């Protein structure tokens, strides 16, 4: 599901940015490596942003933005999510226009033509979260439901059943629930 019609995956970038910062503030999800040097630039590349145009100081700027994005994922009711999204949108310059740079054909940009890659990412991720919240409220995003995990997710599936940041957390939770049921059954049989 592409929420904003942009050639990059802005929603996926928002999730990965937040989770990259979560990995530095909290422990990474079990089985996942800790933060790597230049991790934020890697998120830009992975989600279709032209990271070669990013300044050398991209890491601190993107880490600060990721902490701001997290406020949307932490919101548990539509009003709080709207306040968080509106705060993001107030801090970005949105000037939609069609662009055909680098042989990509015409596509929509949300920031002005002179904006650098960090400002483009900020505008695109803010807009992607705005679309997600406006279309689905708080039912399609949030914190991972696994015990001990503070990473986030955005659910772009058709059935909107996602509650975990990764299959690893979903599997660990399922195994823990199964073991708890088995222990309860053994106790009740005695």
TrEMBL record:
Residues 140-181 form the Zinc finger CGNR domain. It comes from the Bacteria. InterPro entries: ABATE, ABATE_dom_sf, Znf_CGNR. Pfam families: ABATE, zf-CGNR. This is CGNR zinc finger domain-containing protein. It comes from Pseudonocardia aurantiaca.
């Amino acid at each position: 599901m592409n929420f904003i019609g942009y050639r990059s995956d802005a929603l996926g970038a928002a999730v990965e940015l937040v989770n990259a910062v979560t990995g530095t503030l909290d422990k990474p999800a079990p089985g996942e490596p800790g933060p790597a040097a230049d991790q934020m630039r890697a998120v830009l590349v992975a989600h279709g942003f032209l990271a070669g145009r990013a300044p050398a100081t991209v890491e601190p700027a993107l880490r600060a933005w990721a902490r701001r994005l997290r406020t949307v994922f932490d919101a548990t009711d539509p009003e709080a999510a709207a306040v968080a999204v509106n705060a993001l949108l107030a801090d970005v310059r949105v000037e939609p226009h069609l662009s055909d740079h680098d042989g990509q054909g015409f596509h929509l940009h949300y920031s002005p033509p002179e904006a650098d890659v960090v400002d483009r990412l900020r505008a695109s991720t803010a807009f992607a979260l705005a679309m997600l919240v406006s279309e689905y409220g708080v039912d399609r995003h949030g914190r991972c439901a696994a015990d001990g995990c503070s990473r986030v997710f955005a659910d772009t599936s058709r059935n909107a059943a996602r509650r975990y940041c990764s299959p690893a957390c979903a599997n660990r939770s399922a195994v823990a629930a199964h073991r708890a049921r088995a222990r309860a059954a053994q106790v009740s049989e005695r």
